[in-house]
Specification:
4 strands
Length: 110
């Protein structure tokens, strides 16, 4: 889980969605707004991905764990909104991490 400082609030998400740059790789979309005062992230998992909230929360926790490792290593601090479009509850963390890193490379953040 991300610390409170690293979590993006709902008003921050709206700001990122309005002004941010987008990158898509596999079943993942990242909207980023850079530069920012500090790196922050939020994860969105749709009900179309997993019907049950418990399954969506498992996916969200996996992605938050991966993001907590990636955020300190970004070239420039950025605000990120990560959309998950596939059910990755049974996917290994390495595969998810590779997808996130590829998206960040497209955005020139990693």
């Amino acid at each position: 889980m991300l610390s409170k400082k690293e979590r993006l609030s709902s008003s921050g998400v709206l700001r990122v969605l309005r002004k941010g740059k987008r990158a898509i790789f596999g079943g993942l979309k990242i909207v980023a707004l850079s530069p920012a005062p500090a790196s922050q992230a939020s994860v969105v998992v749709s009900a179309k991905v997993a019907k049950k909230a418990t399954q969506r929360n498992v996916i969200r926790r996996k992605v938050y764990h991966i993001i907590s490792q990636i955020l300190p290593n970004l070239k420039t601090p950025a605000r990120l909104v990560i959309y998950i479009y596939w059910n990755c509850s049974k996917t290994s963390q390495d595969e998810i991490k590779q997808s996130i890193v590829q998206c960040l490379k497209k955005l020139s953040l990693n």
